[in-house]
Structures are given as C-alpha cells and as structure tokens.
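Suppose you are handed only these lines of text.
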Amino acid sequence: MSLCVLLVSSCAKKSAEDRFIDDLLSRMTLEEKIGQMNQLDPSYESEVKEALIREGRVGSIFNIVDAKEVNRLQRMAVEETRLGIPLVVARDVIHGYHTIYPIPLGQGATWNPELIEQAAQLTAREAIQDGIRWAFSPMVDVAHDPRWGRVAEGYGEDPVLTSTMGAATVRGYQSQGMAACVKHFAGYSVSEGGRDYNTTWIPEVQLRDIYLPPFKAALDAGAMSVMCSFNNMNGFPSSANPHLNIDILRHEWQSDALLVSDWGSGSDLVPHGMCADKKDAALRCINARMEMDMEGNIYTDYLAELIAEGKVKESQIDECVRSVLRLKYRLGLFDNPYVPEDEPTFYSDEALAAAQQTAEESAILLKNDGILPLNIQHPTLNILITGPLADQKKEQLGTWVFDGQPEHSVTPLEVFRSLNISYEPGLTYSRDKNKAGIAKAVAAAKKADVILFFAGEEAILSGEARCRADINLPGAQAEMMDALAATGKPVVMIVMAGRPLTIGKQVEQAAAVLYAFHGGTMAGPALFNILTGQAVPSGKTPITFPKMVGQIPLYYNRHNTGRPSYDPPMLIDSIPIGCPQFSIGQSSYWLETPTEPLFPFGFGLSYTTFEYGSTRIDTLPFREGQGVGYSLSCSITNTGKYDAYEVAQLYTHQKSGYMVRPLKELKGFEKVYIPAGESRTVTFTLTDEQLGYWHESHHDFASKVWFETDSADYEVWIAPDSRCQTTPVQLTL
Ligand code: BGC
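From them, the structure of the protein bound to beta-D-glucopyranose can be written out as follows.
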C-alpha cells in the first residue's frame, strides 16, 4: 500500500512538461529515439536530408537561415512523420546575427553585463526571424593564452567576469525564445601551446576553481543546452568523459540541459586514440551521456546495434531523448513549430545603436600622452588616416561571422571623411609585406598634424583553428610603425584584433594606443566618437597583455611561487661574462623580462581621472547558517574634466591557507557613471562562500576534493585594476 501511495504521489507531482515527455517517449520506437539524438548539417544532398527528416531520423538541423526553408523542412518533420516531433534549428550565432557586435573578448572589455544582455536580446530577435531557435553560444572558456585563436570568442581570463557575461548572454537570448548553448564543456582553452584542439591537463581543483564556474553560472541563468569540447582533458576527450558529463553536470549540478557534442567530437575519439573504431566511439559517448551527436553519425550508425548486442540499455537512450524533447518543449516548438515568413528586419536603429554603444565601451585606452581626444574644433587640424584596418568592412566584424553583411559595416575611414583628413593605407591587408605603400603613407604623414594608424589582424587570424605562435603585428606593420614614428608626428595607434598582441615597442613609439578588438558593424562610428571625445573610453582589459610570447601563460590570478620575482631582476645583458652559477638564482622571472605584463588585467585609461577613497567594511547581519557576509564600500571621485564611466573592481587575497591561493582574485565589479567633479560610492557584498575554494587531499592513494572556506587573514581591495594599488582592508575569518 505504501509503495502505491508513493507512486501515486510521485506521479501527481509530475509537471505538465514531464507528463508530455513521458507520453511521447512511451510512443516512440527505438529508431525514432535515435533520430532525435541526431543533429544534421544541411550540406547533405536535398534528397538524402529530406528522406532522413521524413523518416524521423533527425532531431535538429543547423545552418539554415531562411524562414521559408525552415518551414518547408519543419513541415516534413511535423506533418509527414508518425509522431510529428518538430525539428529545432540551430546556428553559430556568436556575437550578433546580421548586426554584428564586438567579438566576445571585446564584450568582456566593456565590463557591462546589462549592455551585453541587451545585445544578446537584439541578436535573438534578428535570428528568430529566420527560424533559428538555438544559438551555439556563449563560449565561456576562460582563456589564459592569447596564441589560442578562440581567445576571441570568450570573455577573457577571469572566471567571475566570464560568468557574469556568459549569464547575461544566456538571459538575453532566452528571454526572446532562442536557446543558448554554453560551450565548450570543458577545459578547451587550456590546449598545450595555445594550439587549437590540443591536449589539456587540468588538476581537479583548478578545473573547479577557474574553468567550471562560468558553466555553472550560465546554467543557473537557465542555459538550455551545453556543448562538449573537442579536447582531451587528462586523457579523456569530453564527449567520452563521464566525470564531467555525468558526475558534475547531472549529479552535482542537477542540470537537465541538453548536452550536444561538438562537430564530430564523438567520432573524433578514433583519431584521439581512445577508440579503435566509430562503433566503440558511440559506446563511449553514450556511456558518458553525450546526448545529441552533431554531425558525427555515430549514433545513427551504431546505437541500435549496440542495444541489440546488450551493450547499451534503452533507458540510456531514453534519458538523452528526454533532454532533446525538453529543449523543444521549453522553446514551445510542439505548439508553434513554424516561423512567420515576413520580410525580416535586420540592422534596426535600435540594434545599430546598441552595437555602436557596445563597440564604444569595448575599446580600451592603453596609453595617452594627452593627444586624445583629438581637437577637431581646431580649424586646420590635418589628420592622416592610415593602416591596413582603417577601411575594412569585413575584417572589423571579426571571427565567426556567417550572416553579418560587410556592406552594412561602417568603417573608421568612412566616418572620418567628414573631417579634414587624408588617407593612405600604407598596407592593404594586415599580413601585407609589400612595403611600396609605406613610403606614400610616410609622405602624407609629414604633412599631417596627427596620424591615426589603424593596425591589427584580419578577422581570419583568430577564431577556431586560427592559433598563432607569434602574436606580433603581422606583415610589415611594425616596420610601418617605425617609419611613421620616425616622422616625429604623433601617432595614435588603434588596434583591431582578435587577441592581445605583443605591441610593446609600438606602445612606446605611439602617442596614444586604443585597443578596439574587432568592433563589429558599427566599429567606425564608435571609434570616431572615442577618438574625437564624443565618447569617453571606459573599456578595461579582460585579459592580461603579455610583453612577449615567451611569458604565456601570464595571468593576474597566478600564484606567487616560493621565490617571487625581485626587483630589478638580473636580465640577460646585465649578467657579467663568466659569471659563476650562484649569482643569478633565487628569483622567478625570465632572463629577457620580469614577470610584469605589458598591461595588467582590468586596466584601462579614461579621458578623465578617478580617485579612490579608502575602503570601508561592515559585517552584514546574515542569518544563522548562511555564513558571514561583509559590505565593502568606497567612494570614487571623478577628478578630471569629462563625465565618464569607471569600472570599480573588488579583489581579495588570502594570505595563508590549507592550499596556496592566488595573488589576487576578482570577486565583483561595477561599472559606474560619475560626472566630472562628482563622487559616487560603490558597494560590494562579499560572503565567506565567495572566499571559499576547492580543496584537495591525497591520502591512501585516493584523491578527494571539497569546497571550503579557510579560517585565515585576507586582504581586500576596491581598485581600478588588478594591480590593486589602493590600500587594502584586512579581514579575518
Ligand atoms: C565549433 C563549435 C561550433 C560548431 C558548429 C565547431 O567546430 O567548435 O564552437 O558551434 O563547430 O559550427
């Protein structure tokens, strides 16, 4: 009797969603179930693709960008299959659909999650018109290596910044009815040597402290799906990693998001060297609960056979299909599978304004000797616009742009034409080594009062599989900068790139440096506004800028070592000839450079100046059982002449503990608008949970990890960047 009551009550508790899915699942054949686990790229011949859809052997299709075509295929799924389960159409909508926003790394530089959420909303509104209901973004891979091309696709090196921006993007998409897919789960960015798809080795505590929190944050924000990463982590490619996909995602986090493979990442288990053949790959993936196979065909080809052989249970298939149906149910596809076929509206005024604002806030002023903003009121100011990126409608859009049309881009040159300018590109593209044009640019420079040198990288030099072993300015750009600087005229260097570049020498040569990343459709007006003072720069580095590639990985939240770098270190040329061994040891640095970066994490200048007051701290009256909380506040005064935004950052350092802790850890940030001459108070809450971290013990050949906050002394700063040059407050737990 008690069992019966239990069963009845658990049934009664089932949601409408669960009942719907249970019912549908109970009516599905094995073939239909396996079909739902298949994601197809439409590059197949039409007859093959259509036959598969009509036979119910496709759950999702991607890369179709036309409402009529979506509806045509959807009708086959809904009206011609036995159960009428709709398709879900996916697309790599990464930083905009038609209207292109700055690359995600640039979005990270805005430190403005509201703006990023708005950009995601507007992006979803554009994409949904073409029938796209599932975006393969945000990418929340925390990245420490600017050689890795996909550094462009994430929000930088910090877990808190990445979590905040990733969650904002998820909310933005999903509020409009487009599912987010948080990727790449997990550890993808740690590829050895910054070479894409390469092996990663990540200790469990580091995985949990640094790389997993943004995934958790995106899921907490409601992300409906997760994508496996390509890489092998600690010997297990993610599509076949039960620890990640089952222990952590399902058990610890209790997530019911759909887990999709990356493109063929399941069949990649063969070249990885884990599986002898694709059938084995299918077995390993299903056992690790990879739920949908993107383009790999390993499930369609082998799952039925594996079930017949008793190697896979049908209940394993059921739990995957449940996730697929859940995503479709939550998107409302069972009720409304079709999309209106009206003429879509792209590039609306609202979207263009948001794209411009995002591009303005993503530009980081790295140096300014006072030349900026340009005094365009001056009646005879003669500006030379030069450089290979000044007028590149396509390149300014950045990586992962399939739908944004370059003809809609507004370039810096186009906007500057409203002023008294001359234009000589010098080089025609970023890798151009033909120096013939440089002489012309130099001749024009001699007649100019100021040179705006638009340098950087073409879009194709960053993104997937676009890794660089050398991250200097490509082509003859460095030589061009030498020649421009030699004219003695002030050079303002504007860098449009997909990653931090090693531009130390050019920074010294330039009068000012504005780092703009790839700013998207409206990069031109945004940069014009900043350079001419109609907008005040407020971007801050989302990632450390190294001086030279040999410093990589270089990141602010590193450990101190037992032999911290001393100042000044003995660099290679200062070592006496025949120097005995003993005199150069004892300190952690390179012979060519100290450990300092070119620009630290969180750094960015403004046209105004800010003064930080001292930090005040109060204990918050938290209820018992909720731990301890602190309120930290600080007054910031705008001491300059421009009304401006400042990004105040909260950092902590744990002075001792069970394990070694990083030198600094970002715990929060706030972008605050402060009119010239006025002060604003920023307030942060810091809980003891935020001070916790993953602990690990190794005893008796067993390793165990757990999350805990140590009783220890902490330093806390509210500071303008990760150098934390303000006075810390002390805190004891
Ligand atoms: C990338 C994913 C992307 C997928 C679909 C893969 O190569 O790693 O990020 O979403 O292709 O285009």
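What can we learn from it? The first strand starts at residue 38 and ends at 40. The pocket of beta-D-glucopyranose is lined by residues 92, 136, 183, 262-263, 464 (CB under 6 Å).
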